[in-house]
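Budget justification note: compute hours in this period were largely spent on complex prediction jobs such as the one shown. Inputs:
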Amino acid sequence: MCLAIPGRIVSIHGHDLQRTGRVNFSGVIRDVNLSCVPEAEVGDYVLVHVGLAISRVDEVEAERILEHWRQMGEGPEAEGAMS
Amino acid sequence: MKYLDEYRSAELVGNLVRAIRSAVTHPWTIMEICGGQTHAILRFGLDELLPPQITLVHGPGCPVCVTPVSLLDAAGRLARMPGLILCTFGDMLRVPGTQGGLFQARAEGGDVRIVQSPSEAVRIAEQNPNRQVVWFAVGFETTAPATALAVKQARLRRLDNFSVLLAHVRVPPAMEAILSSPSNRVQGFLAAGHVCTIMGTAEYEDLARRFHVPIVVTGFEPCDILEGILHCVRQLEAGRHEVENVYSRVVRSNGNRQAQALMAEVFRPVDLAWRGIGSLSGGGLAFTPEYESFDAVSRFGPCEPAATGGPFSLADTGRNQEDCIAALVLQGIRKPNECPAFGVRCTPETPLGAPMVSSEGACAAYYRYRHRESYLATVTPP
Amino acid sequence: MTSLVCPNPFEESGRVLLAHGGGGRLMHRLIESVFRPALGNATDLDAAVLPPTNGRLAFTTDSFVIKPLFFPGGDIGSLAVHGTVNDLAMMGARPLWLSVGFILEEGLPLETLKRIVASMRQAAQAANVQVVVGDTKVVEHGRCDGLYVNTSGIGVLGHDRVLGPQAVREGDAILLSGDVGRHGIAVLAARNELEFEVPVRSDSASLSQPVLDLLEAGVEVHCLRDLTRGGLATALVEIARSSALHLHIHEESVPVQDAVRGACELLGFDPLYVANEGCMVVILPEAEAERALTRLRQHEVTAQAVRIGTVLADPPGAVTTTTALGSRRVLDMLSGEQLPRIC
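Corresponding output:
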């Protein structure tokens, strides 16, 4: 229902409804409307759906869950062989 | 790609699968609401990594599957109007209405254009001042704010040749309908992470409490989906039924305030007959009086009444061909291969209903794996 | 003395006119000033007379209606040559002669036509093949999109085998000559639906050199297939169905450029189904795999050649992959071309 991809804000221009960012998606550059993420600045990653940034990626949360999954590997369940 | 590749790591997937295997002691039926989640499950073969006790049911979270036939036919009629330009997402081109889909309308000379965003449709209207441009607005709460934004941009630029065929839909009423059905088999939900990025999680607290089902807000990459399943299974095993958010890198519990404000200004919830499920109260969106002038139906003439029949009347399940059981498949009550027409009269090339058209539709997914047992059983990857 | 410049009706408009297709003076002038310089050895007789050759002939035809006419890494002219040459190469034939038919839209700038025909000449020279006969027609403005090209090609087979799916055997190795998806994404960029930090260039190129090199080195090849509109997945499904065997690949081994992967994520495309124009699958006995890879990697167009999988017996007609996660997936033919999706 909603393909949304994270990209890095390269530059920002305009304001309010027209606040727009040049956003880099692994080499693809797109103009993205940033009016719904006023807190997002150049260098931030935003989640973009149909040309609209709908959230700023929380880099702390993003790393925390990865670390949590890595530690799972060392936990007691780790011994259970994956069939 | 940053924030994608890390969540597709085989090592982390392995850790999660092991955790799920040791957490599950009973059979559980879990529905992933969103077509995007279904796509990830199929593309990465996640269901094959799960223990057999877990059954995944593909939910109705795909605009191709649930957009009412009446609106599809209206889009086809608009596209055939001389001089009119109909803008749509690529997803909707192959979906069968009663007069073929939009591919058919285009083949008959209609000007149907695929766009990547609603604002692109506004740009097309600006570039073609003497032609009427209609944006076919499908999609869930994730996509509705972008339509609202486009409408406000059109108003700012005083474009009188831009209008919207509204087909946006809301998730909670569909979940309520599935849970209220006496034959419902679904015991836990993976909520659509990107809908919750907009709406937050509050709307689901009431459903979890009333129907005693765990609802886990889940992302779209393999690790995200497995994390959602793990938390759902842990709740089911412990008899808990809470709303949990495991996609916290983008979903905040109160969602996106600005996007919600945009929607509240431009839209209001209305009843709508979802294809395959029937009429849902508050299942659709209409314009608020202030933006009513942008409504394509009032501008170009009515299409069939949108909401007919009771919550579960199959009378107007959006008129798939009569023998299509999309309603039962979309609610997890029947599996696609339990349908007599499946793979015989109903194939991706000759779809009877929308779940066979969309590449993520439950029936299309099962069709692709129709010989699954024989395909995969003999494969011993060298 | 200032030279008298008489207003020459031909130069002044700078565009293709209906009259250019009329068989009269304007058409001959078009041939002399546009086609002759680029495709010198094409005859102006009704047909080319070809010398006898020893060995069986391969004969193919193709049409090119790509829009836009120019894209990063190529244009309709070079694409027409590469596409035709590659069809011959996939039979293991040495490409010799091409025919080229143009359908021009009234109003097409002559400059555009000159650029395309020059590009065609370069591509033919690089693939060392000759355009020996041509034809031009002009249609009213609006009845075609600038320019369409139809080609046919003749090549000679230096071997007596018939390459193709029917020659594929269980246990054969499946090789891929390069990264996938670049052509489809480059065309989308040219239609300014996509913008890139570093442009993605189409992989449009001739594959005849590496193929002939393999055959002349005596490598036993069972089947060659150039990947076009339906991408790698569709080519594999076609081979699996006509050989009634089961093609199994490892998705992780299929090279995809980062920018192409990024574009596919954004559009909701699967790179295995995105178009290519200079990439092929080579299916041959397991024992020949290493030798073939070494030879292929000596050619620029196939420098990234890699093994991606193996031919199995059952179930017949299937194509499956092992994903990066170790799970398995079935590849089917799409019912139409991939469309950008939001769900």
